[in-house]
Design a protein that fits this description.
The chain has 293 residues and is an alpha+beta fold. The chain is 27% helix and 24% strand. The strands form 5 sheets. It has a 6-stranded mixed sheet. The protein is globular, with a radius of gyration of 19 Å. One of its GO terms (molecular function) is DNA ligase (ATP) activity. Keywords: Ligase. Its EC number is 6.5.1.1.
């Protein structure tokens, strides 16, 4: 029998709670739902008003993994949805605005990915992002070196950057910016990626060509484009272990000496929140938003 639970007055059928989703640790779907319920207070503000793309992995990372952008079949009528313009035509997408909607979406087994803009202002970004992706044998250790350079370069333009793990093998840098056309944020991010390659030629590549990446960090500036999305803060990732895209301090970035230093799994997040709070909370404060130069 499928368990029925009530969340904020909404009745939810939660399925397959004993199914192992992350085989490296035996992490189950029930544990995943518990993780999202207990981190909702910090996760929901980062999802609010941002149309979601779901990367679904209902049978774990070794099963079928697929992106879903349109509203899934069977979505309850109380889940907020909105029409979103896209290059291939308008689509109706999900907005996760409350705990009940978060648990409903988590029950689908998904990573949460968001654009850098909010509903109602597509193509107008309020967030700048760099995805630092290491090409083997480079690791997150090299990403940290690049992140520190980018942080200083952004600071020179009056922009304060914050870091989080990708939850996979790299690092994300984020900054709050005054509402700016996505085309401009993308151009600005590309200029900085080019500058990083010139300053750190042994470490950085700004072009997407995969043959250029081995041993270097690809500074992916393209995720600022209006049609692109990035893994949201605190989302679980479709990996063998229940890794999380976790905010980190700049001291942790500076101290990173091996890839394992910046790997955080679902059980790590509660203690980190008690120790640090939401390290990305400044991104949610309009007063912290900076104009692009």
């Amino acid at each position: 029998m499928t368990p029925i639970t009530e969340v904020e007055g909404r009745r939810l059928a939660l399925s397959n709670l004993e199914k192992v989703l992350h085989p490296a640790t035996g992490f189950t779907k029930g544990e995943m739902l518990h993780y999202y319920a207990t981190t909702a207070d910090v996760l929901l503000p980062h999802l609010h008003d941002r149309p979601l793309s779901f990367l679904r992995y209902p049978d774990g990372p070794d099963g079928q993994v697929f992106f879903a952008k349109n509203v899934p079949p069977g979505t309850p009528d109380w889940v907020t949805t909105a029409e979103v313009p896209r290059s291939e035509g308008a689509a109706r997408m999900v907005l996760i605005q409350d705990l009940a909607s978060l648990i409903w979406a988590a029950n689908l087994v998904t990573e949460f990915h968001t654009p850098q803009w909010r509903i109602g202002t597509p193509d107008v970004a309020d967030r700048l992002v760099f995805d630092l992706d290491p090409g083997a044998p480079a690791t997150v250790v090299q990403c940290c070196e690049v992140a520190r350079w980018l942080r200083k370069r952004l600071a020179a333009d009056g922009i304060e950057a914050y870091a989080k793990t990708s939850g996979a093998k790299g690092l994300h840098l984020l900054a709050a910016v005054e509402p700016t056309p996505s085309r401009r944020t993308t151009e600005y991010a590309r200029r900085l990626a080019v500058a990083a390659e010139k300053a750190l030629p042994r470490l950085v590549v700004h072009r997407m060509t995969r043959s250029l990446r081995p041993g270097k960090v690809f500074v992916d500036w393209s995720q600022n484009a209006a049609g692109k999305t990035t893994a949201a803060p605190y989302t679980l990732r479709a990996r063998a272990a229940p890794t999380v895209s976790a905010p980190v301090t700049w001291q942790e970035v500076a101290d990173c000496a091996s890839p394992g230093d910046l790997v955080f799994c679902a059980p790590d997040i509660g203690p980190r929140l008690r120790a640090h709070g939401d390290l990305l909370a400044p991104l949610l404060e309009p007063a912290r938003s900076a104009p692009l130069p």
